[in-house]
Model the fold of this input.
Amino acid sequence: MRKIEKRTVFCLILAGLLGLGLAVFCFRFAVDGGDWASFPSNRHLYNSSGQLKGGTILDRDGDVLTWINEDGSRSYFDSADVRRATLHAVGDPAGNIGAGALTAFADKLSGYNLFTGAYSPLGGGNSVYLTIDAYLNNIAYQALGGKNGTVGVYNYKTGEILCMVSTPTFDPANPPSIDPDDPQWDGVYVNRLLSANTTPGSIFKVVTLNAAIENLPDLFSRHWTCTGSVDVGGDAVTCPYAHGELDIESALAVSCNGVFGQLAAEMGGKTMAKYTDAAGLTTAMRVDGIQTSKGSFKFDGTENQLAWAGVGQGQDAMCPINMMLYMGAIANGGKAAIPRLIEKSTTDYGLPTGVYAPRKSSELIAADTADTIADMMHNNVIATYGQDRFPNMDICAKSGTAEIGADKSPNAWFTGFLRDPETPYAFIVLVEQGGGGASVAGTVASKVLTAAVEKGY
Ligand SMILES: [Zn+2]
Done:
């Protein structure tokens, strides 16, 4: 009897393990099946040169950006400029741009589903409608004027990325031969909005301001005199020129390194790290499954290094989309919709194949602090950047001119948001080695935002 009992228990354990294994497999099959099927060596989905056989990619208003012809070849939109402007969103035929839709959304394009596998009755695969507008991308591409950089604009209420341009770029219909060591092609396969990691410069002062408002109760009654250089921790923190008499609002408007360097040093590295983390700048996000990069900041050096870190220099590195999300949170009472790229996806017959809904971030900034900072960033535009460059916009902004080496001209940044309920857009512009942030990147932002507001989404 005892022998039989033992065997029964043993059999039950075996059956239990089998059931558990089957459950794990079924769960992973349902969740990851699309990724397994769209593995690049699956010859049902890819031809011998590695190109996805099916799938149409459209922009938000239905412009067809790439499709498959009856002979199996792939075509792209008929304007070369639009092809270049949307390259990093759409992807290249060889699949070098990993964050492009052709690669990142291959499972949705191939027509794969849980029940029929990769079978597609009409052979053309599925359609993916991106949230971007090809027209707005082209405006941004032209505005960058051949410089390397990125432009991002998104709706902080819905998460829809309206504009996502990264340069250098190329024409996917006629891919050039690219020498990766040629500086002309520096990081050409990287989508700079999602994956760059670079010195933020003075746009980071918004985070230092965020920390100062909540940690220094007398901040708004303080006054400083900028002489162009101030000693912090035995070494200088310098400004391009003497800013003179300042309070905190004017210090932000003229972007005084001396004031913000001293504030960072006074609050200390732990506080600076806490607020940088809270702002989301050190956290990667998933944009419809595409993993973004995350920033890194060093606040534990000397007091002088801490001061420079507080003005976005030193070893600070940031991914542009993180700052765009933080701007959305300042605009939106502390939390913003997480950026997303897929408007909808459909089968050959037009049936939806997925649900794409807004998702909110965690609280990146306290609501009352956000409102205070928004007013101060609006004052930046009135006092320094020029409201006439942004007609009919309730715009809040911060420029940055990030030093990236003695022999290079600085990177130009411009970031912020519109407060209009009809056009709730946050934006970020980077022009690499562009020069002055407000003048160069601000001009790109002005062109793109003017077009976005005129069209309205
Ligand atoms: Zn100054």
Notes: The longest helix spans residues 2-37. The chain has 15 helices and 16 strands. The mean pLDDT is 91.
